[in-house]
Amino acid sequence: MKREDGRKVDEIRPVIIKAGVVPNANGSAMVSFGDTTAIAAVYGPKVLHPRRMQVPDRAYLKTVYNMVPFSTKERCRPGPSRRSKEICKVTRHALEPAVFLEEFPKAGIEVYIDVIEANAGTRTAGINAASVALADAGVPMKGLVASVAAGKIGNEYVLDLAGKEEEETACDMPVAYMPEENKITLLQMDGDLSPKDAKKVMELAIKGCKMLYEMQRKALEDRWVPKVKK
Amino acid sequence: MILRDQYITSLASKGERMDKRKVDEFRKIDIELSPIANAEGSARVKMGKTDVIAGVKMGIGEPFPDKQDQGVLMTGAELSPLASPDFESGPPREDAIELARVVDRGIRESGMIDTKKLCIKKGEKVWMVSVDIQIINHDGNLIDCASLAAVAALLNAKMPKLDGDRVEFGTKTSKSLPVTCKPAAVTLSKIGDNLLVDTNVEEEKTAGVRLTVTTKDNGNICALQKSGSETLTAEEVEKAFELSINKGKELRKLLK
């Protein structure tokens, strides 16, 4: 199958991952998938306000996903939407399993994700960036979380849908996965697919996550290995 | 809380539950049709002590610019503070939004309502169908209960009479909505290493992760949503697919 942008079916758009892009934050990262770019910044662990949000035996992971008004073809209204509130929730659930939250009772770890350019796959780009940002901040983690979506166009299973593919696909299934633990931390889907196909699509997304994981590691090494060597 | 979690988890590991149900057994489901006379369609669904009303209201509006020949379908949900000590008043929060969006996704992606047939005049006038979900009592498994109520209410709905541009509310025609299939949402909650169907509130608080699988009459999957701060393996997801397809058939039988 020939894809719109000439990619193979199991190929991700050109990926750029850079750690340490927001000097004020404890940790940060930028992730681009082709024309989709997300920046994540981590503040904390720190005292959590308001106090009623504090959890006695673990840290509270706060995740904020935000689309910037100029990120889309047609300007999107600033501020939270129903969509972004749902994404905040699933992003939190995608990251929580990776963080040793029990190390910081009552504390807050804040993760802010700004999507500065949106062209499919913003939640997955956000999760990739947030995971690298948490590691960059030195927050103790069980492993990195990598994330990518997959779908099915015609008879082919297709990784990292972009552009017109989002309309052509029989389903859009974003997955987040921890390769070290072999665990799925995000799974959503909309579309119409047999259970057999759904399994294949999920397997392809997991394969994509494994590729991204290596790139996430590389980004962290690029940032930290030179500093350690000094 | 820890004692409750341990008790529920140890029961689940033996394939048992607090209320003697099997792990894959629904509580008693009761569907009451047309409880709300003023709504174009409505259904009240009880799953054990969980009690949900879904109401369908219709009106006339303009189509979306990118879908000029299609009617509009909207789903909302309210977690009213009267339904649980855990709910607070105010604008919908994350949980209410997720509930509405997961129910909406199942109905929309299954193509249950043929929205093209809701077009009155292309680019100008279409039917706007709103499904609103109100929780009366929360004892767990809101997604499945609300989905069932929403689907039952849509099946139950009769189009109101249209007089030119004006909808004559209260005068229903005999025409139903253009329905193509019946999506069924089944949520599996993971407790220990077991997947439980139709969890009550206590079980839900114990479970670290759940997966909602919405299936169509033909066994295809039209929506997935993982929720909760723990993880799933690929094998567990596959098991959830199989379970939810079978349990979805049971739910569908309850719908006329």
In short:
The complex is a heterodimer of chains A (230) and B (256). Chain A is of the alpha+beta class.
Number of domains of chain B: 1
Tally of contiguous helical segments of chain A: 4
Overall 3D form of chain B = elongated
Could you tell me the radius of gyration of chain A in angstroms?
Answer: 17 Å
List the helices and strands of chain A in order. EEEEHEHEEHEEH
The termini of chain A sit apart by: 49 Å
SS-based structural class of chain A?
alpha+beta
Number of strands of chain B: 12
CATH superfamily of chain B: GHMP Kinase, N-terminal domain
The class by helix and strand makeup of chain B works out as alpha+beta
Share of β-strand residues of chain B: 35-45%
Q: Find the count of extended strands of chain A (DSSP E, 2+ residues).
A: 9
CATH architecture of chain B: 2-Layer Sandwich
The multimeric state of the shown protein is heterodimer
Q: Report the mean per-residue pLDDT of chain A as an integer.
A: 95
Q: Biggest protein-protein interface?
A: A-B, 33 and 37 residues
* Helicity of chain B, as a percent range: 25-40%
Low-confidence stretches of chain B: none
